[in-house]
Design goal:
Helix content: 25-40%
Number of helices: 8
Strand order of the largest sheet: 1-2-7-4
Shape: globular
Strand content: 15-25%
Distance between the termini: 40 Å
Radius of gyration: 19 Å
Structural class: alpha+beta
Oligomer: single chain
Number of strands: 9
Length: 269
């Protein structure tokens, strides 16, 4: 493809993603993403600060699996309003409803791209240990938003109330970001004071220790182990109840904490 054709292709892909149900969509380059903050930081911090699952691909600590022919990343976001908490609930062993929507959109978009263009796609797993990528960094480079003080992706349209998914494609497409956007600069950061486990209470790693300037929580004060502790408690507190539209029979529903997310004032309207 020449550049004009690539522009048309990228535009068509983004329009199709939204037609399929994506709230936001953007594109970034694989080579740019490989040097994004999370990708370079992950091998430098303890395993507990990276993820919660074991790799099934023989990947080293913090390592990402990149297909050799992958050139661009298509990132999609699905809005998760504060008044629809069930989108993030885990119903028994099933994936949360919001994530199931993302999986369907990603699968349909992948099939459409391969049927319309001479482009191969690689739909990605959510966990990097199982073949995924650091989605927030990809979303930032794709122009969807920025990383906030709460260590979440903050979008202009929905604040942090989005869920992400992505795929790799074998064509170099025009990128859609990053963009100038930083709502946290003048914010009083209510998100940092609502965590029941005080996950933002102290600086854990510094620029000097990690040899890089971009850190979790912006200043290195986000503790994933503390956040994971809250998630384990949420899991233990799960009770059997019915879920209209999902299960008419009582099923154990895990309702994970979203305090740092729903307290953010960005995108509330």
């Amino acid at each position: 493809m020449d550049y004009k054709e690539k522009l048309k292709c990228a535009s068509a892909i983004m329009n199709k993603a939204k037609e399929l149900g994506a709230s936001l969509v953007g594109i970034c380059g694989v080579e740019d993403l490989k040097t994004a903050p999370s990708f370079t930081l992950a091998p430098k911090v303890p395993l507990a600060d990276v993820g919660r699952v074991e790799s099934d691909r023989g990947l080293a600590h913090g390592e990402v699996s990149w297909p050799e022919d992958a050139k661009s990343v298509i990132v999609i976001a699905y809005a998760h309003p504060h008044n629809e908490p069930q989108l993030d609930w885990r119903h028994g062993n099933a994936s949360p409803p919001g994530n199931q929507v993302l999986i369907r959109i990603n699968k349909s978009l992948s099939q459409w791209i391969e049927s319309q263009y001479d482009i191969k796609t690689y739909p990605l797993h959510y966990y990097i240990e199982k073949g995924g990528i650091f989605l927030k960094d990809a979303a930032v480079l794709a122009g969807l938003g920025c990383i906030g003080k709460n260590n979440m992706l903050i979008t202009p349209e929905y604040g942090p109330m989005v869920r992400l998914r992505a795929m790799l494609v074998t064509e170099i497409l025009p990128v859609t970001g990053p963009r100038e956007f930083n709502p946290c600069d003048l914010c009083q950061a209510p998100c940092l004071n609502v965590c029941e486990k005080n996950a933002f209470s102290e600086v854990i790693y510094t620029k000097e220790e990690t040899a890089q300037s971009h850190l979790p929580g912006l200043i290195g004060n986000y503790s994933r182990p503390k956040c994971n502790k809250q998630m384990l408690e949420d899991k233990k507190k799960a009770v059997m109840e019915t879920s209209p539209g999902i299960s008419e029979e009582p099923i154990k529903i895990i309702k994970y904490c979203r305090n740092c997310e729903v307290s953010c004032p960005v995108g509330r309207d």
